[in-house]
Design goal:
- By secondary structure, this protein is an alpha+beta fold.
- The chain is 42% helix and 20% strand.
- The chain has one domain: Glutaredoxin (3-Layer(aba) Sandwich), CATH 3.40.30.
- It is built from 4 helices and 4 strands; from the N terminus they run E-H-E-H-E-E-H-H.
- It has a 4-stranded mixed sheet, sandwiched between helices.
- The mean pLDDT is 95.
- Residues 5-65 form the Glutaredoxin domain.
Length: 86
Amino acid sequence: MAANIEIYTWSTCPFCIRAKALLDKKQAEYQEYTIDGDDVEREKMAKRANGRRSLPQIFIKDQHIGGCDDLYELEDQGKLDQLLEV
């Protein structure tokens, strides 16, 4: 069983691709919500992400992690693996 991971993306967003690459490297399963041009879904995402509208927005165990840079910062600090554990 894996941690519940959700990531909001645009299909051609380089930061989204980079964030997914790190999750893939960690062999973490995630639910991706591709919201290209979908203003309604982006608004829902922004409400969950404390008003942040940039992409990607990442949630692990229903906790808002932030974007790509935030995910990589957790990795650099050695904290990401703990979050990915069940």
